[in-house]
Fold this protein.
Amino acid sequence: MTSDMPASLPRKSSTGISQTVMKYGVQLLNFIRGKVEVLEDAEDIVQDVWYQYSRLSNLDEIENISAWLYKVASNKVTDKYRRKKNESLEDYVYHNEDGELYLREILLWDDREDAETAQFKKRFWIELQKALKELPPLQQLVFIENEIEGKTLKRIASEQQENIKTIISRKAYAVKHLRKKLEPLYKELNF
C-alpha cells in the first residue's frame, strides 16, 4: 500500500518519538526533579515537554534533540514557578513572632485545651466553606480534591478527563478567590 502524502511533506515518526522518549525519558525526569520539589510536578513538566515534542510538525528540523528537550524542560520549570506563586494556599503564610504559620496548620490546630483557638478555628472553617460555595463548581471541586483530599492535579485531570493546564487554571482562580476572602482572618491572628 502506498501513501497518498507527497514526498515533500515532513512526516512524524512515532517510532522516532518513542525512541527519543526511551533514550531521554529518565534523564529528563531526573534533570527536572533536581529543579522542583514535588515528584508530581516533575512528572507534569516531563509530560508537557513530551507533548510539545510530539506536536512538532517536523522532528528532523531539530538539530540537537537533547539540547532542545533540556531547554524546553528548563522553560517549563520556570513557567511552573511563575504560576505557582499564586497557585497554592499551602504557600500562603502568616508571619508571627514565632515564624511562619501555614493554612494547613490552622485547619489542623489542636483546639481541645484552648477555647479561643477552638473559636477561631471554627470561624475559619465556616468562612472557608462560605468562600468555597461562592466558587464555580469545577473550581470548587479541583480545590477540594487537591488541597483537602490530597489528590495531585495530574490525577484530578485524569479523573475529570481534562487538560492539566485547565485543572491548574481552575485551582489558581479558586486560590485567588479564597485568599481574598480569608485575608481578614489571617490579619486577626494575634500571638
DSSP finds eight helices and two strands in the chain.
